[in-house]
Amino acid sequence: MEEQIAGFAALEGPDYLDFLYVNPNHQKAGVAALLFAETLQEAKARGAQELRSDVSITAKPFFLSKGFKEVQKNVNIKEGVELVNYLIVLEI
Q: What is the value of pTM for the model shown?
């Protein structure tokens, strides 16, 4: 959009959503919803029974609104810094 990458998404294997990123200049424009829909279709085409991801606290509400369920809170320590994310799963 306007010569900028609006966003991108990537699946790892058939059922792990590895990335879903939206450029801050294009947030609230439906980019995440479009990328999610395309990624979900690709996961189904790969034979996935569920879609899993580890997401940040800021991304979690978007995914919950798409039907994902929180499975667990992950706490990782990197160089003394606590990083929290959430494993989420969507049955498809």
A: 0.89
